[in-house]
Amino acid sequence: MCVESPMAPLTNLLLLPLLLLAAHFLTPSLCYVNQARSRAQRNSTETSAYRTYIVLVEPPPLNSDEDAHRRWYESFLPSTCIRNSREPCLLHSYVEVFSGFAARLTDAELDRVAKKPGFVRAFPERTLQLMTTHTPEFLGLRKGTGFWSVANYGKGVIVGLLDTGIHAQHPSFDDRGVPPPSAKWKGSCKAARCNNKLIGVKSLIVGDSDSDDYEGHGTHTSSTVAGNFVTGASVRGIGRGTSSGIAPGAHIAMYKVCNRSGCEESTILAGFDAAIKDGVDVLSLSLGSVSGVRFDRDPIAIGAFNAIAKGIIVVGAAGNSGPTSRSVTNDAPWLLTVAAGSVDRSFEAGVHLGNGKCIHGEALTQVASQTSKRYPLLFSEEHRFCEFEEYRSVSGKIVVCQATTPTIQNPRIRSIMAAGAGGVVLFNEESNGYTTVLQDYNSRVVQVSTADGAVLAAYAASSASNAVAAFTYNNTLLGVPPAPVVASFSSRGPSSVTPGVLKPDILAPGLNILAAWPPKTGYASGPFTIISGTSMATPHVSGVAALIKSLHPDWSPAAIKSAILTTSDAVNSTGGSILNEQHRKASAYDRGAGHVNPTRAADPGLVYDIGVSDYAGYICWLLGDDGLATIVRNSSLACTKLRKVKDVQLNYPTITVPMRTSWFTVKRTVTNVGPAATTYKVKVDTPKSLRVRVSPKTLVFSKAGEKKRFKVSVSCHKRHKHKLVEGSLSWVSEKHVVRSPIVAVPKVGSHAPAPWP
Question: In the 3-class helix/strand/coil scheme, how is 222-266 assigned residue by residue?
């Protein structure tokens, strides 16, 4: 054991999943880091002359049922297309997300469709990619006490997921203690096991009715958001405890929209359509597209808008393209966008050097014995990536090398260990810093940070043939500081489409998350596994949203989002600033408003609410009439009748302003959801370079539901060379602190999103 590391008592651990979002420009994607296996990607330019198009048309002439909609859509299709029975032409018929359909068409057929009266527009679909035992406790949720008990574990709330399917027989989806769903549920379940927990399962993939999960992603995210309690969960003995989702009493509805090839946009829209019709309360999307896509050409933005118009809160992954700036996805203001951070748990393995230093690493494969033999330490620039022409030279040594893609590195590690090496130490590449995405190498492999890799390399070089090292394994340590830390892979802001709205919104556990796993993937040896990504962070926040919805069923999606953002933690477990992967202070573009705090989110005091007409006014400002007609399925809303709302003036719970020496003013409205008679006083925390004026400075409420408006004026003493300057505004009462980040940036207010590819 490396004695410098604190050993926390091993209490019951609560199981949650970790998913990394690998964003791809041409495809929506699952948001988790799956480095152990490459995914076959379907090129958007198919070899056939046919291509899938999403076609928007005017609604049927009369109010019609679903069959009438389908007949109306078929009237747009060429007769040659309809008669072809070998492969369906009409793939999906949409009713809830907008009036339209998805069809496989040639360019010539699309031209004929476009000439039909009632045609609005069409665009080719893309393929998106998919983006624990301890995390509930890390978030302050403990069985039988506190907020978890008060919220009744989310009972009665229906959480829908658009994902890879679900392994229904997993014990996480047992319905012990879960009541039947309410009468509002209209969905169906087609799975090996359906019960009061798993109330909805269906595949929306054309030609594939099998809803089982052969990727693992959907099972992992589902158990994270709402898996039931399972005792004795672990991955080969580490992380042992009681697994649970964040809302273990909630119902689950799985809509399979992704498979090994990715997630087709037309299928994602079909998932939205089905979930809205079925009556879900929360939609969890651990998938995403590329940053910079116009919202009227982004199926997630379109589907999410029509979901929130029905009162459904939609939670999406920020993406796994960090630490690059402007890489955030799912950045529409009506989405709750989640970044990924670490938790205070370490699967520790110590690397003891011959000079007396001990390096704290981690390993998923742990050896029971606490005594370890010393081996010569081997590192050289020539073999930096574990690449040897022949492996006899590694026999009896511990080999140090830099981590790279596991699909490349795994065979090399197997060869090293087969040649008789004492073990392998993998250190992070520089961009990953202190973010160690654990991989299951099933061997004596210890993973360490970039900084510790430099220590190892320096020791090996200075001591030459006398350099030695030994491994020790400490299983699972809790309370390891600092936590949370923003994960290197987590995508960063600002949004290139709407820079006046801070994205991502919130930080949640997404690094090395333990959760349920199916047996059919060939990836894991047991019913649980540990993976990472914003895909894993997303269901944590979806679960928190479900708990709040259970307590406050009448709150709007925007009110629930506001509650989560304004009560988030601005500091880490040590009381210091939340750090990024380099252990420098994280910016608002890294972490959003802060780290999710479920207990405080349940009782925020004040909320910043946003209605559908407010969002519609924003869409008019950003995209005009055509954008509004595409996104908003409400003929009564038209730009000529709406007040245009700039992004910076949306009633958002975070405040983004241009970095100017002159005063710039935004307006906000808060709604009292706390005690009836309450007085709030403003508290501003900013650096000296940022000046903030708030008017009025006091808000006095006499009843619940009462609204109050205020103005915030911001200026900078001088133009900064920095990308942003941060402060905060808090409304403080006897019982509540309602905090909003203030972010001043060089440019906001642009509404020229990237062109359609």
Answer: HHHHHCCCEEEEEECCEEEEEECCCCCCCEEEEEECEECCEEEHH
The pLDDT of residue 82: 61
Nearest residue to 313 via CA among 341, 285, 293, 340: 285
Domain of 161: which CATH number? Answer: 3.40.50.200
Looking at residue 679, its amino acid is: T
Question: What residues pair up with 19 in beta bridges, in sequence order?
Answer: 533
Nearest alpha-carbon partner for 293 in 55, 630, 561: 630
Distances (CA, A) of 458 to 124, 353, 644, 728, 749: 53, 12, 60, 43, 49
Taken in order 370, 374, 379, 385, is the CA torsion positive or negative? negative
Domain-ending residue, one of 478, 505, 522: 478
Catalytic residues: 163, 217, 535
Identify which of 448, 451, 459, 379 has the alpha carbon closest to the alpha carbon of residue 416.
379
Short-list 744, 605, 600, 649, CA closest to 333: 649
Question: Which candidate, 222, 393, 405, 338, places its Cα nearest to that of 591?
Answer: 338
End-to-end CA distance of the chain: 54
Tokens standing for residue 492: 């960063």
- Nearest-angstrom CA–CA distance, 317 and 489: 12
CATH of the domain at 706: 2.60.40.2310
**Residue 607: which of 743, 741, 738 has the closest Cα?**
738
**Quick check: bond before 171 cis, omega within 30?**
no
Q: What is the DSSP letter of 641?
A: G
Query: Do both 156 and 278 map to the same domain?
Result: yes
At 718 the pLDDT is 72
Residue 212 pLDDT = 95
What are 595's strand-pairing partners? 507, 569
Cβ contacts of residue 74 below 8 Å, gap of 6+?
A: 82, 90
Residue of 495, 505, 491 whose CA lies nearest to 750: 495
Task: Give the sign of the dihedral formed by CA 508, CA 511, CA 515, CA 521.
Answer: positive
The pLDDT of residue 158: 98
Could you state, in chain order, the average pLDDT of each consecutive group of 10 residues for the chain (757 residues)? 36 29 46 51 48 90 80 88 68 90 92 92 83 70 80 94 97 96 96 97 94 95 96 88 94 96 93 97 91 90 96 97 95 98 94 93 81 86 89 92 88 93 95 94 91 94 85 90 96 95 98 92 78 96 97 97 98 95 97 97 97 97 94 89 96 96 96 97 95 97 97 85 87 97 81 38
Gyration radius of the chain over CA positions: 26
Angle (CA) 605-611-612 rounded to 5° is: 155
Spatial contact of 605 and 513, defined as CB atoms under 8 Å apart: no
The answer to whether the bond into 9 is cis (omega within 30° of 0) is: no
**Amino acid 523: pLDDT:** 66
The residue segments making up the domain with residue 696 are 605-610+650-757
Q: What is the CATH number of the domain that holds 58?
A: 3.30.70.80
